[in-house]
Amino acid sequence: MTDSMTVMTNVMLRIDPQACDGIGMCAHLAPDLITLDRWGYPIIPTRVLDVEEVSQATKAVKGCPKKALHLIANK
Amino acid sequence: MLVDYFVLSAPAGQREDYNAHIQRNGVLERCDRSLIDAVAEVALTGRGGAHFPVARKWQPVLQAISTAARLTVVVNAAEGEPSSRKDAEIMRRNPHLVLDGAVALSQSLVTGTYAAADIVVWLHEGDDISLSSIQRAIDERAGLDEPPMRVLLTPARYVSGESTSVIRAVQSERRTGKATAFPRFTVDPGRPWLQDDADGNPILVHNCETMARIGQIARVGALAYRATSLVTVTAPGGLRVLEVGPDTTFATLLASLGVVTPSAVLLGGYGGQWVEWLRIADLAVDPDALRTHGLSLGAGIIIPLAPEECGLQKTAEIAAWMAGQSAKACGPCTFGLPAVAELMTKISKKAKARDLRELHEVCGLIPGRGACRHPDGTVRMVTSALEVFAEDLDQHTHSRCLAHPRKHRR
């Protein structure tokens, strides 16, 4: 589990909107970062995450049953 | 000058075959990277509607091509909107100009590398006249030393013309031998025009008109470039396609087609924006001129609001059509667009404050959250209507309508 040990900086959340089914797991796992819209689809921060936000974001990424949520490097 | 030409050299209703094309336009010399400079010099922008600088699209391709085995150049001629016909017109009249552009582009980008190139023409199923014209053109060029060319057909939907759909289909064809319009590969929304497939091979998509312009620039050079615009105007007798010079104003254009002065026009089509006539009448039908006024010509679609039409009702009808065209692949589009259409329909009958509030809220939830730009365009069109038809919206709160003042609405 090297990736969870490494502190990731300068990363952003990204949704694959076609893979997302609006299950809502991400909002349970990362309630400080992700809210659901009126149809149950996640609204994610469009900015670079703070260092202390990354662990919660990682939980949401790993917990997504559709593998629709990703952490990506900010280019 | 009202009617000018850089692209549509063939007269209306006539198809230029290869020999006629060569006689009129001359043989296309083999291209090198100087084409890139020429396209940058004339500041050519993408005519599929986004008006992204074309030469800038090529930078990542140039990087990728040094290690890639293959470059696929795609001509996007899948014109998804009922009010657009310029690309069909080019395909029917000047198919060789389009292929010239694809050939010139492939040659200039793969110069000095070991990569091969191939050319794909992306077309809607059922667009039989364009299909036969381009297929004949491909056959007419069979003996030339050019990259292999083929046509891919896509179901005729609005979103099939989205470059993201095109790229996914080409990827899926490479992998499975069959082009599916909506396979599940994620395209980087930051650079949707280029996606390295599993082998790292770039796919470059350009709109049909853009490609024809590249072909002409390759032939005549930057100095002889003419900054014309191809437009499709919804006129009394039906759709009219014209190529106009950069000094043509909207007033001149509509007058020449016998269109009664409208109160507003929908500029850029169903995913474009409503603009008050007084704001746009004396502006030039030119993407650069419009950009300085914060407007976009989009794919050259101009829909004047007819005097008997209610702008809010028309907006509701278009929003409903756009909702029906969703590929239903992404939640915010699948659920958001029908919600927008339903609220807009209610408002076009009687504008209740509660519905308006909800419409603004829903419109705020949609943009930037789909895999393609379809939902964003729809929201842009609807929000522009709420601004441009503000006065009529006020009438509608009292169940009245500026277009039908005498009709009592309940």
TrEMBL record, chain A:
<protein>
    <submittedName>
        <fullName>Unannotated protein</fullName>
    </submittedName>
</protein>
<dbReference type="Pfam" id="PF13459">
    <property type="entry name" value="Fer4_15"/>
</dbReference>
UniProtKB/TrEMBL annotation, chain B:
<dbReference type="InterPro" id="IPR037207">
    <property type="entry name" value="Nuop51_4Fe4S-bd_sf"/>
</dbReference>
<keyword id="KW-0004">4Fe-4S</keyword>
<dbReference type="GO" id="GO:0046872">
    <property type="term" value="F:metal ion binding"/>
</dbReference>
<keyword id="KW-0408">Iron</keyword>
<comment type="similarity">
    <text>Belongs to the complex I 51 kDa subunit family.</text>
</comment>
<feature type="domain" description="NADH-ubiquinone oxidoreductase 51kDa subunit FMN-binding">
    <location>
        <begin position="39"/>
        <end position="214"/>
    </location>
</feature>
<dbReference type="Pfam" id="PF10589">
    <property type="entry name" value="NADH_4Fe-4S"/>
</dbReference>
<dbReference type="InterPro" id="IPR037225">
    <property type="entry name" value="Nuo51_FMN-bd_sf"/>
</dbReference>
<keyword id="KW-0288">FMN</keyword>
<protein>
    <submittedName>
        <fullName>Unannotated protein</fullName>
    </submittedName>
</protein>
<feature type="domain" description="NADH-ubiquinone oxidoreductase 51kDa subunit iron-sulphur binding">
    <location>
        <begin position="316"/>
        <end position="396"/>
    </location>
</feature>
<keyword id="KW-0411">Iron-sulfur</keyword>
<dbReference type="InterPro" id="IPR019575">
    <property type="entry name" value="Nuop51_4Fe4S-bd"/>
</dbReference>
<keyword id="KW-0285">Flavoprotein</keyword>
<dbReference type="GO" id="GO:0051539">
    <property type="term" value="F:4 iron, 4 sulfur cluster binding"/>
</dbReference>
<dbReference type="InterPro" id="IPR011538">
    <property type="entry name" value="Nuo51_FMN-bd"/>
</dbReference>
<dbReference type="InterPro" id="IPR050837">
    <property type="entry name" value="ComplexI_51kDa_subunit"/>
</dbReference>
<keyword id="KW-0479">Metal-binding</keyword>
<dbReference type="GO" id="GO:0003954">
    <property type="term" value="F:NADH dehydrogenase activity"/>
</dbReference>
<dbReference type="GO" id="GO:0045333">
    <property type="term" value="P:cellular respiration"/>
</dbReference>
<dbReference type="Pfam" id="PF01512">
    <property type="entry name" value="Complex1_51K"/>
</dbReference>
